[in-house]
Design goal:
By secondary structure, the chain is of the alpha+beta class. It contains five helices and seven strands.
Amino acid sequence: MSKGPFLAILIGLAGLSCSSDTSGQLDQENALTPPHEELYTVAERQDIIAAAQAIIEADPTAALVSVDSLGRPRIRSVDTSKPDSSMIIWIATRPDTRKVDQIRGNPNVAIYYNDDEAISYVSIMGTALLHEDIETIMANNPFSEEWTSRFFPDYPEDMLLIEIRPTWMEVMGQGIAASEDTWRPQAVTF
């Protein structure tokens, strides 16, 4: 599945990852709260969530957008878990990656899934929590033993889990249509 045609959307999402007040300070607490006019919803909430789950299940490789110490969006591909009923997503990484440092500095992130052929996508804006304790890692590692051993030879000691807790989500596809006038995707808040 090509990620190319929707790269511009990612750059727009990255702008949601932080906001500034008049003094130039980051307002991390309110950065991901969408303005009311941003939300467009005509479908039932459970239908939007079901469509998002189907899009993610079809291709769980996503683009994770974090913000670096200079306020620049940083985008990389990640393999993710299937979302749970609350749309929480888990990502495995090593503790010394740049994304971990960026999340420590600003926990507001966006994660983006798309299917160019079906003209479908899911954008999740939320907060990332870092989990380094072995009990949490063992209980929540969503990946197969083969996948885990391939990327984490000293598992669980060399793994850190990133938990993405959604604040709001936009979906287009799987029967969830965007606005005909503005192309705005349908959204839900959490």
